[in-house]
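Good morning C.,

I know you're traveling, so I'll keep this short. The sequence:
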Amino acid sequence: MFQKFDATTSPDTGKERLTNLRTHFDSLQIDALLVPRSDRYQGEYVPDSEARLAWLTGFTGSAGTALILRETAHVFVDGRYTTQVRKEVDLSVYTPEDLVGNPPAKWLLEHGKKNMRIGLDPWLHTISETERFEKSAAGIGATIVRLDQNPVDTIWTDRPAEPVGAVSIQPEQYCGRLATEKLADVKAIIRRENASACVVSDPSSIAWIYNIRGSDVPHTPHPLAMAIISADGDDALFIDNRKLDIETKAYLTQLTRLYLPTDLDDALVALGTRGDRVLIDPDLAACRIADVICNNGGKLVRKTDPARLPRAQKNAAELAGSRAAHLRDGAAMVSFLCWLDAQQPGTIDEIAAVRHLETCRRNTGERLQMPLMDISFETISGAGANGAIIHYRVNTRTNRSLKDGELYLVDSGAQFQDGTTDITRTIAIGDIGSEEKRFFTLVLKGMIALTLQRFPTGTRGMDIDVLARSALWQVGADYGHGTGHGVGSYLSVHEGPQSISRRGVQELKAGMILSNEPGYYREDAFGIRIENLIAINEAAPVDGGDKPMLGFETLTLCPIDRRLVVPSLLHDNELCWLNDYHTRVCEQLLPLIESETEKSWLVQATQPISRSPED
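The tokens, ready to paste straight into the viewer:
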């Protein structure tokens, strides 16, 4: 199994570890310490050896920061984790805070004290983030202290070893372009910005540029590595050579010079000593990288990672791979949902469901000759009240049965070599109440509204986020997460810079893949989310229109639970879309399914919905 179910943290350890950490404040001459979720690569997912926030506080979410003061301690999380954090940390010593509305830098302006010294590990905070902290500190007469040694590492005596996952080559048939072509494009951008080199610190960009994949990070095929790409000279890739076999080493040595990660500091010093102008993304690169360059005489060219936007705009091969992956994943989901419907309420639990879903994906991949490489994140398997925990991770301590009259929310995804998937379905277990059905239909209306939207070039994610929320807003409801995140091509299931959210400032461009996942969550009662992946394409012209438009292609193919739909709440175009979608799902998935039982289930699950005469 790719997913594990042991409870890896406990609120019970929080107080002792916090007390131990504070004993180091005097020797470090600090009054506070920032402990982020990130590692030196600033990725959303980190290896076990870098999970400092979880080890210290108990909070296991994928975004968050702790601010430890001498007398108080605070854990900042976003709207996805407001319920989860209260279950995972010791509330007698940690106070949950709003990471979005009142992030640590803003919190310090109101609660920080003059002359206080706030420590941070410059490897674990981006350039931009550190600057925000320094601005806040200056506003109250405090000081940000860059630490040479992270005190969490000092007290974490059983810290796991760093990963040395094997690196593989991503074939051209799936990535669509040669690494030499991508490197040439990156070098052209460096020259255009009048820089001599670029430090690439994002493992997703490393994987994309060099057409390699790794296995250092759970469920995300990143090789943890950094690179210095020169405008005109030799390049350098800093990677542990234990990750490379003979083939991958020979492949990479044709593209770049190979160095150990421990050689990076010397290379950064050399850039600075030469007085080079170095392109660096202040929102992605660790502050430590900038410090070494600048402290040795170099200058920063603050620009977006040159691979980030090209990586987000999938080429024809990557889009074809995603379509194929979603067909395969849809067949696996049908196998799972057919099995789930055959189980009697109360006879299976959340863990059993996750295990069977992973088995369905594995078996379907083998049968269709494209093995499941991994799941794309830990499956969110929430029955009843657990479904209201937006990023719930089931473990042996929280596991509960799927009971009659409850909703079951399952958010999952697969990593196939040709594409990454992410799908959420909310399922009726037995007879469901009218309130749950009403909100399910309102969520569905939001998902359909976004799916059907056309928009002109220049449109940003924040411009259309409201479409998915409108039906909920009309009844005084909302959800505390973004509507859509970018998705990589056999890379991270959460990919920037594109998003559909209140903060989605990136222009939406053809080739981008995003999720479309509105939801509704009633704490201690139920959760609802419906998620499809969508790709941006050029929309067909409209008679009389005078502007080119973009639109969405739905990639995900899987039935939406018809038993939860209230037809009278759907407009004609919404009902038409749902029926057309189910027709397409049935037509495209039936040829991939062998079991007659599953075929019959699929046909029934995709039958058209009609209104009663009185609607």
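Safe travels,
E.
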